[in-house]
Amino acid sequence: MHRIAVIPGDGTGPEVVAEGLKVLKAVSGKFKFKYQLEYYGLGGELYLKTKEILPDSVLDELKQMDAIYLGAIGHPEVKPGILEKGILLKIRFELDQYINLRPVKLYPGVETPLKDKRAEDIDFVVVRENTEGAYAGVGGLIKKGTPDEIAIQEAIHTRKGVERCLRFAFEYCRKRNQKNKVTLCGKTNVLTYAFDLWERAFYEVGKEFEDIETDYAHVDAVCMWMVKNPEWFDVIVTDNLFGDIITDLGAMIQGGLGIAAGGNIHPAGVSMFEPIGGSAPKYTGMGVVSPLAAISACQMMLDHLGEKEAAQNIEKAIMKIVKEDVKSLSAGKMGYSTSEVGDLVAKYIIEK
Ligand code: IPM
Ligand code: MN
Prior knowledge:
By secondary structure, the chain is α/β, with parallel strands linked by helices. It has a domain at 1-98 and 269-352: Isopropylmalate Dehydrogenase (3-Layer(aba) Sandwich). Helices cover 41% and strands 22% of the residues. The two termini are 24 Å apart.
């Protein structure tokens, strides 16, 4: 029995999560596994009504789950940062989900701006450190609002935090067994302290993995090559902020936020899976956004929970639907509504 916490969240989150749960029901029937859902109404609406963000009691309950399935966090009427830090980053940090795993994979039939690339050229994974770096929240403002004000925002890189992230990347690369190459994405030419630590740890940990090639690139060059030569990459490992930025670029080259999913992972703890796009307030309630990113997050969650066959089946269904059914993954251009796309995935799983 898998106990899954569901946080539909804000904006289009609830719409796409509903489709993921539809697919979960379909695969669980077919592959005979059981699960139990606990819903949590966290997000902008709750905050505006009660000022509650993430009560400690809820956090304690989340820690008892087998996985968390999240839609999106962020509300147009709430000042940016309150919900993002108070819910999303708080869960990532409190549950020590130290890896943010984001596959970048182009499925045949999906439109990407890199039209001359074939689907097999775009298939890599970004392993983003998820609890430190610039996200650690260390710093402050003095003389705020005056002409003399100063803001300091430090980035924290601990040997332990960096090393466990690197080790995850190498192990993941070995399991993936594709190009067997890990690229460290850094900025050793400017961030000479932080990435000195990252680089030394990278080559040290790399020695434990003789079958895996080690490779280094500066973050700006990574951005260039993700577009020009995405086929060079297999596993990219990087810090929290660079990982945030390059995975939005990754989402675009794989066809957009309508298909890009990610996992916030603690390999031995409670992990959380989410579509990587935001809450898309302007499309909320219209039934026009693609649920495939949320469905793909459900696939990652089942893979993580050990339901490998069910996960593979979801991916097969997604691949069929992007190739043969939906016209585009852009909001309002799918040729179907959000829930019709969920129905297509569920139907394929039940029938095939
Ligand atoms: C992401 C998001 C978050 C981040 C925001 C919402 C705090 O952009 O999951 O990539 O920066 O990590
Ligand atoms: Mn982001």
